Every structure is written in structure tokens, then in C-alpha cells.
Amino acid sequence: MTIFIGVLFVVAAGITLRADVLRRRLSFQRAAGWRLLTVLDVVCVAATVGAALGLIPLAVVNGGLPLYAPATWGIAAAGLLAAFLWSEGRRQLQFQRPAGIVFGEWLILGGAYQLLETAIFGGWPHVPHGAVARTACGVAILMGGAVIGVIVPRFVRRYEGHHILDRVGEQEDFVQPEYVGATAECPHPEWWQMVDSQSSELEVLDFLKSIVITAKPRLIVETGTFIGYSAIKMAEGLKANGFGKLITIEFDPAIFAKAKERIDASGLGDWIEYRNASSLETPIDGTIDILFSDSHLTIREQEIRRFLPQIDARGLILVHDASSHFKVVREAALRLEQEGLISVVLLSTPRGLVIAQKREGRK
Ligand SMILES: C[S@@+](CC[C@H](N)C(=O)[O-])C[C@H]1O[C@@H](n2cnc3c(N)ncnc32)[C@H](O)[C@@H]1O
After folding, report:
1. What is the distance between the alpha carbons of residues 102 and 93, in angstroms, rounded to a whole number?
2. pLDDT at 70
3. Residue 123 has pLDDT above 80, yes or no
4. What is the C-alpha end-to-end distance of the chain, expressed in Å?
5. Tens digit of pLDDT for each residue in 280-314?
């Protein structure tokens, strides 16, 4: 029986470990992306799944799964903990959360459950109890708290874009489900995909290329290059048209350096003028056919007001992040519409996209 339980544990844990490593785009053959805390993150989830499945035959042999029994509670707790930690792993990827967060939560929640089990079933066979068991649970909870207490404050102090830079510096980008939750206007964000939470959704990137091909702009201005995904897509459109120029503006020097590297490597550099500057200061000469406003959420309105006089009456104003998740942008677009400056269409993508045109001069 012990051998059977051992085999079940190893198989279940092994399958979970492999699935977790694959979704994190890590490899057992490559060191890139691995840290000690990453190892602990994936191992604790695998061990919890193994424990949940390994406990089932043990409980059956020991008299089934009555509701009031430590084995039943243990299986349920391990199952719930495994499901929670798995979803935490997904969020860790989507939001660039720090390595070790899953392990810290595992220590806290696992320790808390063991304390509860000890308090309720302390007199039952196979349930560790007494001062030693309680101390071990307390130590696990404290260690979990310490791990989270050390890594989280360091993580939140830095801008999310820099965490993404770190990740793309270690690993290739990879496609994953969109990160924002459902809204009334976009109830199925999981139908969209992204490479990271700063770059536009992949479908929006394709849309940007299509609209460039459709509208044939001579001058596009993009505020907020980040690592260049949208700039490269729009440049693909310009290349297909055979004319036009994109000026893309990024004020963060580290992010700008990465964008420059990627744009240069894309072979589309001839279509793109990149600037390490602020969108609120850098001068733009000439008439703008497409403005893609995708910088800091709170300055989108200032950008539109700033560039509006230069935007062609037949031109387009595209403003990303205008879903009801990002009220500041959505409300700014609607305010500009109320003032009679622009006409707005709210495209219901996960993060939302405003497609607008200026009212003045419209024929
Ligand atoms: C959402 S990301 C842009 C994503 C990019 N357009 C894409 O879809 O691939 C926003 C970027 O705007 C930059 N940014 C914020 N305020 C800015 C400003 N005033 N001028 C230029 N860039 C700015 C940030 O550093 C960040 O890299």
C-alpha cells in the first residue's frame, strides 16, 4: 500500500511539476529564468497535488471518507490549496509577481490548516499533535510571512514595466491569456491574448496594423513605446503601404533602450523614429494622421488636448486602456466628447480602445 501511495504521489506531483514548468516557459535543460524561490514555487504546488491524490487511497483503506475525519479534511484542504496556488502561479506570470510568493502562501496556508487539524483532530491516529506539532506549524506560518514580507515590498516599490524588462531579459516573451478581469462591456477577456500586461492585447496589435493599412497615414504618433510591440506592428502596416512614418515616444530610459534594441532587430527601423522623451514635451512637426495614445493613464487627456490642433480632420485618435477598469481614461475620452472636441467609439476589448475623430473640420 505504502508503495502504491508513493507511486501515486510521485506521478501526480511529477505531472503537475511538468505542467507548471511548461506554462512558465521554463526548462529542466536551461538555467534561464530559474531561481531558488522559483524552484520552491513549483515544487510546493506539485507536492500539494501529490499529497491530495496520495491521501485518497490511504483514506479508503482506513475506512472510507467520512465527513468528520482528518483524512477527508486533509484531502479537501490539499485540493483547495493546490487549486488556489495554481491560480496564484498564473497571476504571478501575468503580473510579474516575485518568485517565492506562491511558496510563502503555501507555508502560511498549509501551516494554518495543520494548526486547525491539530486543534480539531489532535487525539486521532496519524494526526501530529502536541507542542512540537503546533510549534512546527507556527514556524511554517512565520517563515511564510517572512518570505512574503521580504519579497513583496521590494517588488511593489518598482514600476511594473521594469519587472517585465527583467523577465524579457532572462526569457523569451510568450503568449498568455489576457490579464484583466471581465467587465460589463467585455465579459470574456479570456478570449484575448497578450505577451505582458503593458503591451497591448495581441488582437489590438493586429488591429493597429490593419488600421494603418486601411487608413494609409503619412504620420503616426505613438505615446508610450514600452518594448515596441505596437510600434513594430504599426510599422509593418507602413511597410505594407510603402510610405509613412511613425514617431514613437518613450520617456523611461531603460525601457527605451530595450525598445530601441527590438525595433532595430525587427528590420523596420526605417519606418520608425523613436524618441526617449516625454509625450507632453517633445515637439512634433506636421499633421498627424493617427495618434495612438498609450502612455501613463493619467496623462492621456493632456496628450489628446496637446496634439488635437495637429490632428488631421480625417485622422484617427486611438486611445488604449479605456475600458471601465481604467475609468480615468474612459472618462477623459467621454469628457472630450461632451466638450464637442472629438467623437468617440468605445471598442469593447479587455482593456478597452477608444477610436475617435476630431469634430473640428469634419466634412
Ligand atoms: C502601456 S505601455 C505602452 C505599451 C505599448 N504601446 C504597446 O502596446 O506595446 C506605457 C508606456 O508609456 C510610457 N510613458 C508613460 N508616460 C510617458 C510620457 N509622458 N511620455 C512617454 N512615455 C511615457 C511608460 O514608461 C510605458 O513604457
Report:
1. 11
2. 86
3. no
4. 82
5. 999 999 999 999 999 999 999 999 999 999 999 99
Average pLDDT, stretch 41-64? 86
CATH no., domain 194-358:
3.40.50.150
DSSP assignment, residue 11?
A: H
Cα dihedral: 158, 227, 233, 295 (round 10): 40
**CA 225 / ligand 1 centre spacing (Å):** 5
* 244: region left, alpha or beta (phi > 0 left; psi from -120 to 50 alpha): left
The DSSP-derived string for 50-94 is HHHHHHHHHHHHTT---SSSHHHHHHHHHHHHHHHHHHHHHHHHH
Q: How far apart are CA 300 and CA 294, in angstroms?
A: 7
Is any atom of ligand 1 closer than 6 Å to the C-beta of 294?
A: yes
> What's the grid cell of residue 281?
514635451
Cα(285)–Cα(348) distance, integer angstroms = 32
Is the CB–ligand 1 distance for residue 200 below 6 Å? Answer: yes
Beta strands in the chain (DSSP E): 176-177, 193-194, 219-223, 245-250, 272-276, 288-293, 311-320, 342-347, 353-358
Reported as a single tens digit per residue, the pLDDT across 214-224 is: 999 999 999 99
Model pLDDT, residue 1:
67
- Tell me 325's DSSP state: T
Residue ranges per domain, the chain? 2-157, 194-358
What are the phi and psi torsion angles at 265 (to 5°)? Answer: -70, -20
Q: What cell does 93 get? A: 506570470
Measured from the CB, is residue 114 less than 6 Å from ligand 1?
Answer: no
| Ligand 1 geometric centre to CA of 171 (Å) | 22
Q: Closest Cα to atom 14, ligand 1: which residue?
A: 295
CA-wise closest residue to 286 among 238, 236, 220, 241: 220
pLDDT at 181 over 70: yes
- Amino acid sitting at position 154: R
Separation between Cα atoms, residue 208 and residue 230, nearest integer Å:
7
